[in-house]
Amino acid sequence: MIRTLKSSVLAILAIFVLAAPTVASSLPEITTLAEKAGPAVVNISTTKTVNNQGKLRDFFQQMPRKGTPFDDFFDQFDRFFGPQGPQGNQGNPHGGPNGGPNGGPNGGPQGRERGPKQRSLGSGFIISRDGYIVTNNHVIDQADEVKVLLRDSDKPLTAKVIGRDPEMDLALIKIEGKNDLPYLEFGDSGALKVGEWVVAIGNPFGLQNTVTVGIVSAKGRIIGAGPFDNFIQTDASINPGNSGGPLLDLDGRVIGINTAIVASGQGIGFAIPSNMAKDIITQLRENKSVKRGWLGVTIQNIDENTAKALDMKDTKGALLTSVIPGDPADKAGLKTGDVITAINGENIEDTNALLRKVAAIRPGEKAELTVLRKGATSKISVSLGERDSKNLAQGEMQNGEDETASESMLGLSLRPMNAQEAKALGMDKPQGLLVAGVAEGSAADEAEVRPGDVILEINQTAVTSVDAFTKAVKEDGRKKGVVMLLIKRQGQSLFRTIPVTDGK
Predict the structure, then answer these.
(1) Which residue in the list 123, 165, 169, 330 is annotated as catalytic?
(2) Mean pLDDT along residues 13-23
(3) Is 7 designated active site?
(4) Candidate list 243, 274, 406, 442, residue with the active-site label
(5) pLDDT digit string (tens) for 104-154?
(6) 169 is known as an active-site residue
(7) N or C, which terminus of the chain has less Cβ within 10 Å?
(8) What are the chain's domains?
(9) What is the dihedral of CA 265, 266, 267, 271, to 10 degrees?
(10) Against a cut of 0.85, is the pTM above it?
(11) Is 237 a catalytic residue?
C-alpha cells in the first residue's frame, strides 16, 4: 500500500515537472515592456485647500459654554480660531503651521480663511517628448497645485492643467522645460479581445512605478460612472493611486486609462478605452475643451413588450420618447416613437450606445441615422448641434431638489421638469414630476413605470415636488399599502399602482 502510494506521488510529480515548462512558456514575457514603458509613467500629487474651519468654529460656538466643564476649552478655542480664523505667519515664505504660502494675517492670502490642505496621489503617462501628460480628471479636479514626479527623478515638477473633460473623466496636463522625455503611444482598443494579456503601470498607495499583469476580463462595461460608460474590465491589479495610469497591450501601447475599481472586490478594475480617449485628448490639446454632438431627444431602451408593440424582431435600438422643438432632431424630421437603429452605418444596441455615438461626432457635422417608424425603415440625415454639459447639469437640478432624492422610494428617480421639456412632451406648461430613472427590479420597474413618464398625481392628489411625492409615499402610501400614480406618457394618461412595504 505504501509502495503503491509512493509510486503514484512520483508519477504526479513527474507529470507536473514535464508540464511546467509548457505552462511557463505560455505566460507573457513583460520585463522588456516594463523597462521600456516604465519611465513614461509618472506619479501625480495634488494639493487643495478644504475650507472647513468655519464649519468647525460655528459648531463649537453654538454649544453651551459658560458654567460648563468645557468653559476653559472654549476660551482657548476662541482665542485661536476667533471670528477671522487662525492667525497666520505673515510673510513666511514656507507657510508656517497656521498660514498659507503667502502668510496673510488671517491665515491665508488676502486675509481669506484657509482650511487644512488635502493631498492626493494618482498616476499619469507622458504622450509627447515635450511633456504632455494624460491622467484622470478626478485626480487633478479642484487642485490648487499639481506636481509630477518622473520615475528617475527625486524632485517633483509643477504641472499646468491644459484641459479637463469631467464627463469622460480625462485630463491633460503639461510640465515645462523638458524636450526629450520618454512617451507612450495609443493603441487600438477596438481590436482587443477578451482574454488578451494586459499590463498596468501606476502608483498604487504611492508605491511608484508598480507593474501588474492580467487579462481583459470584459469589454463594454457600464458601471454608472458617466453618460458614456464603455469600460474595459481587467483583472490586472488596480488599486487607489493607479487612477490615470496606462493599461498596456503586450506591444507597450496604451489601450486604456485606468479609472475605477470595485472597492469590495478583487481583480475587478476598469479602464477608459483608448479609442474613446484619443479624440478627447486631441481636442484638449488643441482647444483646451471638448465639444460633443447633440441630437435634442429623450430616449429609452426597448423591452420585449415594446418591441412587440413596434413590430420589431429584437430589442436593439433607442426609442425616442420626445423630440425637443427647434433642436437638430426636430429640424431633421424625427418624431416621438421613432427608433434609431444605426448611426453612419454602425448599429445601435441601446440608449448608452446612442449617447456615445452622437457625442463622438463633432457639432456641425452630419450624421446619417437609420430610423424605424411604424414598421418602415428609412435614412435621415441630421446636422448635429453642440452638447452643453453645463446646461444638462443644471437641467438635472430644479428648485434645489436632487434628481435622485427619491431613488430609494419605490426605485424612482424624479425631478420637476422645465418649460422646454414640457413643450417637448406636448404639455402646455411644466407640471408633475419627470421620471428620470427607474431602478431595475424595483417596485416601480415591476409596475412598468418608465423613464420619460410624467407623474401628475399620487393617490389622486396633484404632485409638484420630490419632497411632496416622498411624503405621500411615506405617509399615505404606507398607510394604504399602495400608491396609485396618474401618469402622462406620450400624450396618453394611464394609472399605475405600486405596492408600498414598510421597508420602502
Answers:
(1) 169
(2) 52
(3) no
(4) 243
(5) 333 333 333 455 666 778 999 999 999 999 999 999 998 999 999 999 888
(6) yes
(7) N
(8) 49-117 (no CATH), 121-175 (2.40.10.10), 189-287 (2.40.10.10), 293-387 (2.30.42.10), 398-499 (2.30.42.10)
(9) 50
(10) no
(11) no
